[in-house]
């Protein structure tokens, strides 16, 4: 009798916990009454045939955040939980987390520097309004494109400015010029120079990291010829503010860098809050390289990316 009860309780437990059967469905399947099934399930728990673990993702996130902070010598790590290790799903959650974090930390008198791209656009769209005084929002790199691909540059600066009840400061230039001479000449304009200087003064910088894969936004925008793309793919790991670096965070090409308009990577190291918002398997190498270069002191990402960065 005991062996039969054991068999039935285990069978009922398998159907209930592993196959998602209802107690009535189990009763029909095993030819038992519903109260009997309920007693069998209780018996299975009491005898230890069933073990139930409650996993609170917030607890795991706290541990991961502490380990990431220590390994990469970061001031702050903000982790969000993503139900799937899928790039678009992860982006949805990290951008929400980033919008909440930025809303919380921005104070009166802050100067916020922002970059562009789909990740930053998603952050900007989720920002909640916060009435502050003396806040300024400035574009950290050129945002005009000769391609049909949308960078969302103007929309992002506008949305940030609206959230903090200020006006947007645009950098109305291509992000990369064809020649150093033309770039220097344009930067010599006092109005352009004032915007670039404001970006340097920003105490908060919010940005993501790009990749050197074929579908990278900067490649699709048409700024590079085939030789330049090949060079960046061979030597690069990622880019921040359209400045490309290798796996150690060192610039890949002085020539390309000298033609790029906007904040220098070294200036990110001195920011009070240098916030890197990125996640997903396709960006692991780029995130690691950015952290190796010490370009961020705050990281906002998800648990899957965090685990990969710690391996």
Automatic annotation (TrEMBL):
Residues 1-58 form the HTH crp-type domain. Gene3D superfamilies: 3.40.50.1360, Homeodomain-like. Keywords: DNA-binding, Transcription, Transcription regulation. InterPro entries: HTH_CRP (IPR012318), NagB/RpiA_transferase-like (IPR037171), RNA_pol_sigma_r3/r4-like (IPR013324), SorC_transcr_regulators (IPR051054), Sugar-bd_dom_put (IPR007324). GO terms for molecular function: carbohydrate binding; DNA binding. Pfam families: HTH_23 (PF13384), Sugar-bind (PF04198). GO terms for biological process: regulation of DNA-templated transcription. Transmembrane segments: none annotated. It comes from the Bacteria. Belongs to the SorC transcriptional regulatory family. This is RNA polymerase subunit sigma-70.
